[in-house]
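Sat 14:20. Reprocessing the chain from the morning session after the first attempt stalled halfway. Input below, unchanged.
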Amino acid sequence: MLKLNTTTIALILLSIIVTSSALECFTGYSVVRGQASGTTKKTCSKSSDQCFKAKANVNLLNKLKLAGCSTFRCMFFKNKCTNQTIAGQNVEICCCNDRDLCNGPEELTVASAANKVKDFLTGGALGKLGSSFG
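Finished this time. Tokens:
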């Protein structure tokens, strides 16, 4: 009969807890507009990793999208998004570690839809159109 001591049981329980607490993120990339990125899943290897997703317009027809696990990319952006200029291109990077698969597609809620409309009206084409008549 197998006899387990307290230390062995504690180590087994700890390994189960550590294994189950690893963050899972969507991962992948795309370069063509409309093509999905982040359709596969990966368990992050480091406890300091966060899920991230990044997107940049390469030209009028193509958008670069990237998703995965990273400690370095998300070092200063825990659970938030930021815009950076990289090689002359505006890149939006969003990082999160508050739940598994948090870097998935945006869920369109009433609040997020209202924010998109507000952003469009205040800084988009309609704002420029209105200023040309004033």
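Residues 6-20 form the longest helix (15 residues).
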